[in-house]
Amino acid sequence: LELLTPRQRGRVALLLVLMLAGGFAELLTIGAVVPFLALLADPEAMSRFPIAGELFRLVGADTRSQQLLLLTAAFVCATLAATALRLLLAWATQRFAMRFGHQLAAEIHRRTLIQPYSWHVRHRSSETISALDQVQQLLFTVILPILQGLSAALIAGFILAALVAVDPVTALSAAFGVGLLYLAISALTRSRIRRA
To answer: Which of 21, 45, 52, 193 could make an SS bond with 35 (beta carbons 3.0 to 4.6 A apart)?
Structure first.
């Protein structure tokens, strides 16, 4: 964070806010689909969702078809909002990373250009080019993956929290199973990746 200007620190804070908003939007999407599927499967299921039942009374959705239409609209709106936030987050993450990479490359050029002539005579231009290549490698192998991983982890955390709130045993069992599967696939493919 020392390399970041105050303005860039503000952009990092904005990215974190967008990540949290994306996680919350995913949570709303899941929150909209659960009552929808419950009502679709069992017309009497609305008794388990008092908030949805209250919402239906407020808007006057008395019949099952009206309730399904309202839940469908809520689900579609939540999905569109979550998708829009994910796209905005992806764009903001890419933009921040590219600007940061540009700042590093510009600083390398600036420091090279302010050197005295004798320094330029002793050093090859390939050193500067190599430093610029390292900026690109840093950008694409470290900075972008960290930002994207943080975003994915926050959104996954929100989703896991929602699933645990609905059914803790099933959600934690599924998370454990997926985690084991991921570790197994990673262990099996690690040797192939190293050979490639």
So the answer is: 52
